[in-house]
Automatic annotation (TrEMBL):
Keyword Hydrolase annotated: yes
Family per similarity comment: Belongs to the glycosyl hydrolase 32 family.
Protein name as catalogued: Sucrose-6-phosphate hydrolase
PANTHER family per UniProt: BETA-FRUCTOSIDASE (PTHR43101)
Domain Glycosyl hydrolase family 32 C-terminal: 344-496
Gene Ontology CC: one annotated term: cytoplasm
GO BP of this protein: sucrose metabolic process
Keywords for this protein: Carbohydrate metabolism, Cytoplasm, Glycosidase, Hydrolase
Amino acid sequence: MELPTQGALLHREALLKAEQSISRIKDTAGKDPGRLKYHFMAPAYWINDPNGLIFYKAEYHLFYQHYPYAAEWGAMHWGHAKSKDLVHWEHLPIALAPSEPYDLHERGGVFSGSAVDDNGILSVLYTGTVIKDGVLIQSQCLATSQDGITFEKYEGNPVIPGPPEDGSADFRDPKVWKHNGTWYMVVGSSKDGIGKALLYKSPDLRAWNYVGVLAESDGTMGTMWECPDFFPLDGRYVLLFSPMGMGERKTIYLVGDMDYETGRFTWDTMGDVDHGFEYYAPQSFLDGQGRRIIIAWLNAWDWMPWFKDFGPTDVNHWCGAMSAPRTVELDSDSRLIFKPVKELEVLRREHFHIGQTEVTPGASVIPKYVGSDCLEIKAEFEMSGCTAEEIGFVLRGAGDGSQQTLLVYNTKTGVLRFDRTRSDGWSEGVRTAALERTGEEPLKLHIFVDTSVVELYTDNYRTAMTNNIYPEPASIALEVFASGGSANIASLDIWKLRSAW
Ligand code: FRU
């Protein structure tokens, strides 16, 4: 039997310490009624980006940026979970911990990356981050696993020790895929204030050659591109990235064509993956049914003047969660369509339905018993004959009106707004999206409410918006309203959702 190396022993020790820290707190953290009921969360403490998403040996694997010592960002580890259906997740031991000179630092660690199946070996590429003499050093590293649970860091790490001329010290988040027998990697970077996606290739995941700049900002698309993701979709290619320095726009997609000869991606279509405050670093993978699926972190770094924090849940020993999985499809005009995976339907319990109904100002349409902190809502409003200036929902309302979250469509401006100024006393901000629907086209909304998140889809799933709110558990009132005139519901379906945990 081969003896473990010194490096492997140090890694094991770091993992054990992290596991012990989580074991001590997970029961306490698990009792918080504010925990999400059907979105993925770590057992306790901090979580950010999804990492290493892969459908491996007939199971879905989700790794995630994790700080196992507090409900705040710190030296990064990779947490790990798996699922058979994308809805019910089983926690697995922490997969990666900082332990090597290239990834051991209290403000660094094992940063984001991706996973591939290399002839049965689950192989992950991540960014080792350290700060030496005040200088950021980010390198790309490999770790492999025979059983899909226990990982060994490659002794030849880092496999890419530093950025090329086209990049800078901000050089992270490798996403790897295979094309015609060759491995490719896209890495996020920045140079002179221009966000970039850099392309590498390799025959074996170990020796990497720099190819060139896959795509970069034209000066208006952010100063640093975090978590780039690149994949083919119906004959075209898609680049996703999370830009720093692009104001409220947090997750961008570009659709275009890839030339593997030149290594250049030429795009013609740009859009937002999500229009909300809290949807960042989406990562995609291909599943066993050939679906392209994305999952994102339900929070975002922010540089807004009003930005305070990542939510008030740290007092309950957790912070952060993952979005519900969404499929990615290409529309005929090269825009993307994002739909919640159909597996989520297993969560549906009691169903409330109404057909053709007029909504007039001040009238109540939804019975009280329908309210819940865990709901799926599908609504269709007829727009012909609608005289209302505004149509919308009151979500997570308190009985006495002291808390409410408003989702409002303005029929004159065509703008949908999510207003959380009265959600909970903690949340702030109004988020808007100019919808594509026009004229007589019905307004269709598909909304998922889970304890502290609202994910919403409209424009035939071409527009998504995700925002967090933190109302009291008792604030569960739901109402549909019209103001300035009347509106017509064509159909309204509401399901109470069960917990997946
Ligand atoms: C994105 C990000 C990545 C980095 C990770 C660190 O949210 O900033 O660029 O790898 O988080 O936790």
